Structure formats: C-alpha cells, structure tokens
Amino acid sequence: MKASENLISVQNLIKTYITGTTEVHALNDVSLTIDKGEFLAIMGASGSGKSTFMNILGCLDNPTTGTYLMEGIDVLGRNRDELAELRNQKLGFVFQSFNILPRTSALENVELPLLYNSKIAVKDYGDRAMNALKSVGLGDRVNAMPNELSGGQQQRVAIARALVNDPVIIMADEPTGNLDSRTSYEIMQIFQALNDKGITVVMVTHEPDIAQFAKTNVVFKDGKIIFNDTVKDRKIATEELKKIALLTDEKSTT
Amino acid sequence: MRILNLFKVAFRSLLRNKLRSFLTMLGIIIGVASVIAMLAIGEGSNQNIKASVASLGTNSIMVYPGNNAMGGVSQGAASNKTIRVEDVEAIRDNCDLVNFISPVDQKRAQVIYGSQNWNTSILGVTNDYLAIRSLTLAKGSTFTTADDRAVAKVCLVGVTVVLNLFGDENFNPIGEIIRINSIPVKIIGVLSKMGQNTFGQDQDDIILAPFSTVQKRMMSSSMYVNSILASGKSEGQVVDAVDEITNLLRDKHKIAPSDDNDFTVRTQSEISNIFGTISKVMTILLASIASISLLVGGIGIMNIMLVSVTERTREIGIRMAIGAKGKDILTQFMIESIVISFMGGLIGIALGILVAELVATFGGWPVVITVFSVVVSFLFSTIIGLFFGWYPAQKAASLNPIDALRYE
C-alpha cells in the first residue's frame, strides 16, 4: 500500500503559549505531509510539542500561525462546530486512558459517535457498532460494562468507537501507555490490520519498540521535527505475538 | 443529534445516579405539591366562605342606621338611631324592585323553661325574614301577619335553644311556653338546623318572634328599628333596588342633596366580595410561600447540575472529541434538568392532590383543586428546570475539549 496521495499537509505550524510574560513555543515551524495509507509514529520527550501537534492534527486546537489541509480542504479558521463535525466524520480518536464512558455498555460506547453524525440513520446504529466491535475481536462482549473488561479490551472498545464512523484517519495518543507489552502488541496488531485495509494511522508513543510497528517515525524536540524517516526492520505484530507465545510455551515446559 | 437519542442519553445518566436524581427531583416535587395543596386549600375556603355568605341570601339588602358624630367624635357604624318603623312600611309600599322586607330588632335575653335557662339572641322580624334568609321550619308553623298585628306572644326557636332548654335536640317543643325576660311566649315552630357559619357562629342559637312582640314587649324604644333586611326581586335588580331604597330614605329623612346619608345600605354581594378578597389574599399568600419552595427546588437543580457538569467534565471532553458540538452538550444537560423538573412536576401534582385530599378527609377542610393551579405549577416547575438548567448546561457546552479530556 504505497499511495502517494496527500491526505494531510501541514505547513509552518507555530503554536505559542503565553504564560505570564514569557512566550513558550510549543511548536516552532513544523511542516509535515501524511500520505493516505500511512502509519505514522510520533515520538519525543514530554514537552517536545508532540501532544500540541496531535491536538492540532486532531482538530481539537488551532495553531497560532500556519496552514493545515486535510484532503485538500483548509481546516484552519473553522469554528468550533465545524471542527466538531470534522472530528466526527473524518477522525477517530484513541487515548492512552481509553476514555470510554463508565457504566455504559461496550455497544453503547461504540454507538456514541453515531449520535452526533446526522448522516447515519438511527436504525443502523446497532449494526454499525456491532461490526466495529467484531472488527476488533469483541463481538462476544457487546453488552459488557467497562469494569467487566480488561485494559486491552477497553482499548479495543475505544478503537471500535474510533472506527464506527468510517474515519479516514485514526489518531492514537499513546494507545499502549497503560497496557502491558503483550496487550500492546495485540493493539498494534489491530492497528496494522486496519492500516492494511487503507486506514491512515497517526500514533504518538514514547516507546521505541511500539514505534517499530509503524511505517514512518517522526521525532519531535523543542517544538521541531528533528527526525522523519521510514522504519527499517518494521515489526509485524502477528509475528511478535507468535514469538511471545513460543517464549511462554518454553517457560511452561521448562 | 436526534431528540429521541438526547432523551435516551439524559435518562441513562439520570438513572446512573438514581438517588441523586431523586433527591434533586424531591425539591421540585415538594414545591409543586405544596403550591397545588395550598391553592386547593385556599380555593376551598374561598368557595366555602362564598357559599356561606350566599346562604344569607344572594339578593338580600341590609339597611343600617348611619354613623353618628357628636362634636366631631364619630360614634362608629350604626351608632345612631335613624331608621323608623314607618321607613320599613314606606319601602314595602313604594319600592317596586324590593321583593321581601322585614325590620330586624335584635337583642340578647335570658330564656327560661322549667329549671333550665339559656342566654340567646332574640330577633324581632316579620314573616318575610324567613323567605329572605331561606330559612325553613323543621316542626310547627311560622307566625302570621295577624300574630304581628296582635303582638302575639309566639316564637320560633333554633335547635341549639331546644337542646339547652329541653335537654334534647329532637324534643318536640311545639306548644311549650318559655319565658323570655319574664314574658311567657309559646313556641309554635322549630327552625331547620343550619349549623355553624364560616365564622364559627352557631346559626341555630336563635329565637325568632314577631317584630311587634319584640319591639313592644322587649325593646325600650318603639319608634326605631335596629336594621332592615330586604331582598331584591332578582340578583340583577339588587343594585337598582338599592338606589330605590336610598332615594326613598333620603327623601323621607329630608336629607339635602349636599349632605351624606344618615343610613347605610349594603348588599349581600358586597359582603361576599369583601370576604372573597380576603380569602384571595390568603390564597396568594399561601401560594407564594409555597412557590418559594419551588424556587429553592430549582436552585437545587442548578446545584446538582453544576456538580454533575464538573464530575462529568471528562465525559464532556470525550463527547466533544468524537464530534459533539457545543449545542449537543447544551441540549443534553438541558434535557436532564428538564426531565428532572418535568418528572418532579408530575409526581408533585400527584402528591399535591393527595395532600389536599388528606386535608379534606382528615382535617375536614374544604379543598378545591383547580385545573389552573395544576397547569400553572407544572409550567412553573418546567420553566424553573429550563432556567436553572441553562447556566450549568452553558458551562458544559463552553468547555474546551482538550482541557476537558485532561481533567482528572
């Protein structure tokens, strides 16, 4: 899947926060293009500007100056409601802390973005949410409450929720930050499968081994991109999981 | 976001905090219930007063002597004796719009039968008095014009008098002789029981005797009359009848056009209106106190909704991140507060009616639940939900999704 179609193009993004009298440049002249079908991992220490960048990319925040084109459409200068609509129909969010609603079943959590999408008929809610849950392997836990699900399962509910509106891009902010390595690989397996189906994935992570599952790595430092290159020796989650399975088998036999 | 979904979301989040939702609702429930109960009790007493005033006769007209002022010192109402017996006759003969008319002389006297004695009101009236007051006889017959002319020593008694003189309400005292101020008088009839009036006065503690008998045998003066009770031919003609009486009396009393009347004419409807106004003021007072509790309930809603917005900041952030617009969040929280006040209003109406019925059953107080009070208190509670729900909902809607998501 090597489409060179420009999905996202940001140019000369600058984001300045003013705290008291000092100016903080969270982003200092960042330019990046993301192709359709890309799997991008953004890395960097905390305070490097990667979260600010994600927020702008996720249409949650506006830069101080710069341009942002998504599918050739200018995203900046839109009001809150228009941004909300973009997030609803073009983007899917996955967070570090899952952020699924407590005391609400998996299915209802996945249905949530549909409630805000006027293009989808109410009668289709159930089917769409069901399909999204099946695609992350939770077809049998549809009515489970979040407290009945493991961390990995909760994150999969969150991914299903991100998928339910057929987004063009999935924004994942440290999706494996709260998970053990095996579960992390399972999540990466889902991401790679989705990516293979043509969904663009942008993921922030501070774990280098997780970044190895992406196609491209970008490193932020002090509000600037200091590294942007294709991943060599890209890891495939399915195989990594097999290795783990072998290791545990060996342990249990010895 | 479709409205049905919004209701679903609102109900779900209210059910998630059942106790809290109920306690918030309780404020509105108590508010609405007390407004309805208070209005029902107020309206009940209002109608009760009106009915009992009306029982004095809807067409009746009362003529009292005017006030007397001696050297600038007013002696108060009816302090002067200005109405004469002949005035009564003049009205009877000349006023076409007056149907019945009776002079009324009233005094308290000691009444004796055998070893029993009782202090009661003696009313000297003519036969017309019974017609005007709609009084009926339980036993015996009434006195006649002939009795009046003959200054006959006969009387009609109320049941309270019968009870106290003869020891039993149901005793038949017809033909018995009682002594009023040492004058032997024969009982010829017993009045039907009327009970208490609105002011707690026992209407059965009364003796009626022919006017001439009371005036000539028991009163010190034979020229003047305490008051006159008359009735108009119909309710609509009462006002004209009052004019007729007023003009006639002014003429007879030779009052110059520039001078005030030396008598007062009142109608039943005026008195009824006065009491109606008093009771309306009481109702408004009760209802306004009750509506304060409704207001407090509304503030309770605002308080809980504010807590709820803070508590659910993260949820709001999530909803916004996945595409909820400000107005979606606003509507969600507004619907929650409207649902609370709406359901509170419904339960409050039921409770209010129940309380009113309990007051009626166990308190013996008349209650009238009007559709108006139900509609008004229900609308008021819903409006309170809207009003006090607005600020927290607005606060939720204006949250920044990034900050809301980060909120712990």
From TrEMBL, chain A:
- Record carries keyword Transport: yes
Tell me which GO cellular component terms the UniProt record holds. membrane protein complex; plasma membrane
The UniProt entry, under InterPro entries, shows:
AAA+_ATPase, ABC_transporter-like_ATP-bd, ABC_transporter-like_CS, ABC_transpr_LolD-like, MacB-like_ATP-bd, P-loop_NTPase
Q: Give the record's keywords alphabetically.
A: ATP-binding, Nucleotide-binding, Transport
**Full protein name:** Putative ABC transport system ATP-binding protein
- Tell me the superkingdom of the source: Bacteria
> By its UniProt entry, which SMART domains does this protein fall under?
AAA (SM00382)
Which residue numbers delimit the ABC transporter domain?
Answer: 8-247
- Per its UniProt record, what PANTHER family does this chain match? ABC TRANSPORTER ABCH.1, IMPORT ATP-BINDING PROTEIN
UniProtKB/TrEMBL annotation, chain B:
Q: Which residues form the MacB-like periplasmic core domain?
A: 21-244
A GO molecular function held by the record: transmembrane transporter activity
Question: Where found in the cell?
Answer: Cell membrane
Example GO CC term: the record gives: plasma membrane
UniProt keyword Oxidoreductase present: no
Q: Determine the domain of life of the protein's source.
A: Bacteria
Sequence ranges assigned to domain ABC3 transporter permease C-terminal in this UniProt record: 288-401
Q: Which UniProt keywords apply?
A: Cell membrane, Membrane, Transmembrane, Transmembrane helix
TM ranges? 21-42, 281-308, 329-355, 367-391
Family of the protein in this entry? Belongs to the ABC-4 integral membrane protein family.
What protein name is recorded for this chain? Answer: Putative ABC transport system permease protein
Q: Which organism is it from?
A: Arcicella rosea
